[in-house]
UniProtKB/TrEMBL annotation:
<dbReference type="GO" id="GO:0015288">
    <property type="term" value="F:porin activity"/>
</dbReference>
<keyword id="KW-0406">Ion transport</keyword>
<keyword id="KW-0564">Palmitate</keyword>
<feature type="domain" description="Polysaccharide export protein N-terminal">
    <location>
        <begin position="47"/>
        <end position="131"/>
    </location>
</feature>
<keyword id="KW-0813">Transport</keyword>
<dbReference type="Pfam" id="PF18412">
    <property type="entry name" value="Wza_C"/>
</dbReference>
<dbReference type="GO" id="GO:0046930">
    <property type="term" value="C:pore complex"/>
</dbReference>
<protein>
    <submittedName>
        <fullName>Capsular biosynthesis protein</fullName>
    </submittedName>
</protein>
<dbReference type="InterPro" id="IPR049712">
    <property type="entry name" value="Poly_export"/>
</dbReference>
<keyword id="KW-0626">Porin</keyword>
<dbReference type="GO" id="GO:0006811">
    <property type="term" value="P:monoatomic ion transport"/>
</dbReference>
<keyword id="KW-0472">Membrane</keyword>
<feature type="domain" description="SLBB">
    <location>
        <begin position="221"/>
        <end position="308"/>
    </location>
</feature>
<keyword id="KW-0762">Sugar transport</keyword>
<dbReference type="Pfam" id="PF22461">
    <property type="entry name" value="SLBB_2"/>
</dbReference>
<keyword id="KW-0449">Lipoprotein</keyword>
<comment type="similarity">
    <text>Belongs to the BexD/CtrA/VexA family.</text>
</comment>
């Protein structure tokens, strides 16, 4: 361990720390892993089934050439006034037929059921069924959204992208790197920044009835920049959780040109869980301007610590500044003792 407290050398020097040099190859591998792990395959492979009627839905049933069945409240009334509410037991009432169990049926199945039952009273009925009130199947939203009202699942499949667009993400307060989609008791963590790269993968993720979207706030999402920088600080993740190493250093005023060592720029990751998983220490040699091109592609994550080490002469000067007062004190004491014995 060096005088500035950092472990140097190979990963074998300390089983709890893995030292990794930031290189173009590392950035390419990380980018590929990020895209590959952005969305679990089971989310992408899900395809919505035909809509099934449930309690709370309102159906509008048209029987052609029979306005008394289509609009019993009168044709001047709004469509919803002539709708048929599916009750809590899954049934709805229809003239001449009575209570019909429709919960769990597709729209086509409801149409066929109604048509077959009223055929006893209407010759060759032509029946059409539509949903004018979707209330049985919803997606719940919580967290840093402008609108957290439940969004209904309709006959038109709802995608993650559409749900986010309707809810309107609070860009100033949201942690975009950790959207949590809860489905069937399992939490899927999604990075919205990664989903937005290239074509929007969010449009390929269909939501299920009962899904819950939780977008955390970014009040605890910070990167800590310390060491030989001009302004040590904590950088908060804002609307885009895509903060690079170069941006983090820039917000701290950059490397101290007098005291810093350009080859000792470190990103410490995973220190909080070091008892279970070795922490990674990424090193960037920033002595050349080209190195900042690498830093501009290296994404820091919440909880990372960016540390800039001191130059050798700086460490030596600090050692001297600590030794000289002690030496002066010892010299003064020796002089005083000598004068007292004379």
């Amino acid at each position: 361990m060096s005088s500035d407290g950092l472990v140097r050398g190979t990963p074998t020097d300390n089983s709890q720390v893995q030292l990794v040099t930031i290189t173009p190859q590392l950035l390419t591998e990380d980018h590929a892993q990020m895209l590959g792990a952005a969305v679990p395959q089971e989310l992408l492979s899900y395809k919505p089934e035909p809509y099934r009627v449930g309690p709370g839905d309102t159906l509008y049933i048209t029987v052609w050439d029979h306005p008394e069945l289509t609009s019993p409240a009168g044709s001047q009334q709004q469509t919803a006034a002539n709708g048929r509410l599916v009750r809590s037991d899954g049934t709805m009432f229809y003239p001449y037929v009575g209570a019909v169990k429709v919960a769990g049926m597709t729209i086509e199945q409801v149409r066929q059921t109604i048509g077959s039952k009223i055929a006893k009273f209407v010759e060759r009925p032509q029946v059409d069924v539509g949903v004018v009130g979707y209330n049985s199947q919803q997606v719940l939203l919580q967290g840093a959204f402008m609108k957290t009202d439940p969004q209904p699942i309709t006959t038109v499949p709802l995608t993650l992208g559409q749900a986010l667009g309707t809810a309107q993400v609070n860009a100033d307060q949201a942690n975009m790197s950790d959207l949590i989609l809860t489905r069937g008791g399992h939490d899927y963590h999604l990075d919205l920044t990664a989903l937005g790269n290239g074509h929007s993968i969010a449009q390929d993720i269909y939501l299920k009835p009962g899904d819950r979207l939780m977008l955390p706030y970014n009040d605890t999402q910070e990167v800590y920049v310390m060491g030989e920088v001009l302004r040590p600080l904590a950088v908060t993740f804002r609307s885009v959780a895509d903060i690079t190493l170069t941006q983090a250093l820039g917000r701290a005023g950059g490397l101290n040109p007098v005291t810093s060592s350009g080859k000792e720029v470190y990103v410490i990751r995973g220190a909080k869980n070091i008892d279970n998983t070795p922490a990674k220490v990424f090193q960037l040699d920033a002595r050349s301007p080209a190195a900042f091109a690498l830093g501009d592609r290296f994404r820091v994550k919440p909880g990372d610590v960016v540390f800039v080490g001191a130059a050798g002469v700086t460490r030596w000067n600090r050692v001297l500044s600590q030794l000289l007062p002690s030496a002066n004190l010892l010299s003064s004491a020796a002089t005083a003792n000598y004068n007292a014995t004379r």
